[in-house]
Design goal:
This protein is mainly alpha-helical. It is about 50% helix and about 5% strand. The chain has a two-stranded antiparallel sheet with strand order 1-2. Strands 3-4 form a two-stranded antiparallel ribbon.
Length: about 190
Amino acid sequence: MVKLNKIYTRTGDDGTTGLVDGSRVAKSAALMSAIGDVDEANSMIGFAIRALDDADMAAQLTRIQNDLFDLGADLATPAADGGEPFAPGEMALRIIASQIARLEEEIDAMNAAIPPLSSFILPGGSEGAARLHLARTAARRAERSAVTASEVQALNPQALAYLNRLSDWLFVACRAANGNGAGDVLWVPGASR
C-alpha cells in the first residue's frame, strides 16, 4: 500500500523524476509524457463519471480509473533484465491480458444494445457522452504518447493494448450514454459548404 506523508520532496526541482526502480529520468522524456497523458485521461474519466446517471457504467469507469493507476505504475517500472521482462511481481505492477479481455467483454455487452453506425458521429450529445468523448480523445493521446515512448525503450505490450482498447471502450460508452445511439450527433459530410 502506498503511504504519502509529505507531498513535496524537492527531488524533482532539477527537472527529473524518479521511476519505480529508483532511476531518474528527465520530466521532458517521452515516457513521462505518456505517464502524464494517462493521468490526464484518468482525470477526464473522473470528470465524465460526475455527469452519468448510469451507476453500472460509473462503476466500470471507476474500475478503469484504478487500472489506469496500475498502467501508470507499469510504465514507470523499467523492463526486467532477462526472463520475462514484463512479468508482474512484488515490485512490478503490470497490466495483464485479463484486464484487456474485461474491456472487450464490456464493449461487446454495451454494443449489443446499440444499432450499427450509419455515419461517423460528432463528439457531443448528452453531457455525459460529451465528457466521455473528452476522455476518449485523452486516451488516444495517451496511447500515441506511449507508442512514442516505446520507440525509445521497451514497454509492456499489454499496457499499449489496454490503451488502444480503452479508447474503443470509451467510444462505445459515448454511444451508450447517448441513449444507445439515439442521441448521437451524426456527421453530415459537406453540410456546411
